[in-house]
Amino acid sequence: NNEIKNAILDKEFDQQSLDKLLIELDGTENKARLGANAILGVSMAFARATANSQNIELYQYLNLLIGNTVIELPQPMFNIINGGKHADSGMDIQEFMLAPVNFPNFHEKLRVASEVFHTLAKILKSKGYKISVGDEGGFAPELKSNEEALELIVEAIEKAGYSTGDVKIGLDCAASSFYNTETKRYDLKISGEAKSINNDELVVWYQELVEKFPIMLIEDGLDEDDWEGFQKFNQTLGDKITNTGDDLLVTNIKRIKQAIELKAVNSVLIKLNQIGTVTETIEAV
User: Fold this and answer.
1) Given CB 3.0 to 4.6 Å as the disulfide criterion, which of 53, 99, 129, 205 pairs with 141?
2) 261 carries an active-site annotation
3) Which of 127, 240, 257, 271 does the annotation list as catalytic?
4) Same domain for 18 and 135?
């Protein structure tokens, strides 16, 4: 991008001033003129180059920008069954994830997830299901219901030699994909039966799933503009599980502030590519 090159060549910046210049150079709220990919590419390249110049790792440099003194690996979530728009599987929920929680370090959690993943493959094969994978790398069998997917994951956890107290489940529901904008209702299958329900009924269904299965996280449980639904969800389940906003918030500072004010979620998924620069991502955090 010659416009960006000409604006930054032979000039001195720190991360914040570079990102500020890129934002002003673009001049649009959603980085539509220069493109978010071009802007983020330059912002991240600067971050990596600065880390190299200081002889530190990229994560250490970013930690310095954030002002965080504690460095630790996050809790990994492993995508093991795909549904929704990520697979042609007949399930409404987009991602069923595995979360090994009660293990001492990252490589142990990775080992456990791998064992459960391969155990699940054997179970699916034994039941006559295909073990092709979806867009996110999880299995995409044509199951009868969302509930069956959860039952199979629990079976895989236990047959791999672990308990549901040590290995939990996370769901990315991507509820916007089954929200009907005309009727303002959610069209999905519950226990294999097609339903058209409102947000109150959807929250009740989630509550039933949380009571029955070892679910620790639900991401995008409601449509991305159903603020009222997210509030109801958080009031009902916010003290029991992690209620995460991704499509709802899109790493947008204004929407994150609104979610805090409305108490719509209790966690946020941060994605650099949604907001466009390192500095804005840190501000969102």
Assistant:
1) 129
2) no
3) 271
4) no
